[in-house]
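Q: Hi! First time doing this. I have a protein sequence and I read that you can turn it into a structure. Is that right? Here it is:
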Amino acid sequence: MSIVLDRVAVWVDVDGQAAPKTLLDGLSLDLTERRIGVIGANGSGKSTLLRLLNGLVAPGTGTVTVDGADTVRAVREVRRRVGFVFTDPLSQLVMPTGREDVELSLRRSVRNARERRARAEDTLDRFGLLGLADQSIYELSGGERQLLALAAVLAVDPQVLVLDEPSTLLDLRNRELLRRTLAGLSQQVILSTHDLDLALDMDRVLVVDAGKVVFDGGAAAAVGRYRALSAAGLPSAGLAPGLAPAGPEAGRPAPRRQEQR
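A: Yes, that's right. Below is the predicted 3D structure, encoded as structure tokens:
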């Protein structure tokens, strides 16, 4: 699978500003690796980049194609190939229970109701969610909802799986389950994340900053670049006037000033 971004720019009008805000600027990428990560600070453009890949965002200039299918002119075809998992699963779980949500995903591709029910149960069982299939989605934990959203997308067997910060709501156990699940998938996986351990599992990692890809390469080198970029943006280590220095004396009460007689 090859996803190609050719000189793509995205901008958005902002109330009170005369000029539009640029979200992405002049990206040209050919995304072919099996596992691709996108890392960067909040507001850097990561989510916008991912949403371009299945037509949730249209480029202002340039083109995005999925195996030659344009994400604007052939959006339905692209979305059959590219599944998208949002950061907040409640933004995509629309049915009262997990069983119903997965069956809804399958409604277009599996016409027979019994077969659809069996496929849904197989998918839920794969993620250890079959026992929760008939619970309200509002009774599930954040991690269970995230895994359910992933199951609903994978039920239709897309060729590419795009995930926007999928581990944000997960505890350690479910995060490790997610990592193992992603590692075992046959699909091409493209994800954004603040979880640098998850980023290190990727074959290729893009570092995005201020709407541009500032690094594109191996996972370890990309994480190193991102750490350096983040450190460079930290405030000075100097202390504000009147604060005691850190070190062995930190935490001790300040000496009393000698009163003049």
